[in-house]
Amino acid sequence: MGYKISDVISYLEQIAPPSYQESYDNATLITGDRTAEVRGIVCSLDCIESTVEEAIELGANMIVAHHPIVFKGLKSLTGKNYVERTIIKAIKNDIAIYAIHTNLDHVPHGVNRRISDRLGLLDCKILQPKRQLLSKLVFYVPEPEKDKVLQAVYAAGAGKIGEYADCSFQVKGMGTFTPSAKANPTIGESGKAQEEQEIRVEVLVSNHVLPKVLQEMRAAHSYEEVAYYVQSLENENQEVGAGMIGMLAQEMEGEGFLDYLKAKMNLQVIKHTQVLSRKIKKVAVCGGAGIFLLGDAKRAGADVFVTADVKYHEFFDADGSLILCDIGHYESEIFTKELLWELLSQNFPNIALYLTKVVTNPTSYR
Ligand SMILES: [Zn+2]
Question: Residues that bind a divalent metal cation, according to the entry (predicted)?
Answer without folding.
Answer: 66-67, 105, 329, 333
